Amino acid sequence: AQTVTQSQPEMSVQEAETVTLSCTYDTSESDYYLFWYKQPPSRQMILVIRQEAYKQQNATENRFSVNFQKAAKSFSLKISDSQLGDAAMYFCAYRSKTGNQFYFGTGTSLTVIP
Amino acid sequence: EPEVTQTPSHQVTQMGQEVILRCVPISNHLYFYWYRQILGQKVEFLVSFYNNEISEKSEIFDDQFSVERPDGSNFTLKIRSTKLEDSAMYFCASNIGPGANHEQFFGPGTRLTVL
Question: Which has fewest Cβ within 10 Å: A69, A111, B20, B85?
Fold first, then answer.
């Protein structure tokens, strides 16, 4: 079964600085999808960014970008120019190409310091 | 912007009681999911539902669990006889289709506390 590991339960960053959240995963599949979801306090999870494993180019969405290292099975999220609204729990998730279920990590709680 | 909603936000129940957690997926979505997160642990997949039947379920989703779409808008998760270890946050999700381009939209969750 696929596993997703987020080794940083908590991270903090100064406003306007850059922070990187780590995620590693384990799979025997060659094609799959990876996601970062953000969950603000008492709100639903929303998709931040997605990456398709067969694409070598790292996905970017405005201030959010990923460093996808397929051989190392690593999928880190970089948040540039951090804003107070970025404070949330961030979940890394894996989805097989053939199935519908997501496999999540345990999450990283990000604090943004003004 | 359409959202997945869940009620109640917090449910407290006694061990052995039945609970029904309710979700209203986004209206044009066809696939529905339940996940749970025990405090401090991973978000875990429970079940997916399409065309009025279960399409996938995990080992967690045993005979104590059932899902239903009773009226075309609600999507419910029933736990027949709750156990202490069922205490968790339960998330509902929905999407238009199973492709990864069709992201899953999550509800805010229901915190279930079993005493």
Answer: B85
The residue behind tokens 């997916």 is B48
**Cβ separation A44–B58 shorter than 8 A:** no
Contact A64, A79 (CB under 8 A): yes
Please give the Cα distance from A88 to A101 (Å, whole number). 23
**A69: which strand partners?**
A74
Q: Is B48 an 8 Å CB contact of chain A?
A: yes
Place of tokens 């590991």: A5
Are residues A53 and A75 in contact, defined by beta-carbon separation less than 8 angstroms?
Answer: no
B40 touches chain A (CB under 8 A): yes
Q: What is the pLDDT of residues A19-56, one digit of tens each?
A: 999 999 999 988 899 999 998 887 788 899 999 998 88
Give the minimum alpha-carbon distance from A114 to chain B in angstroms, rounded to a whole number. 26
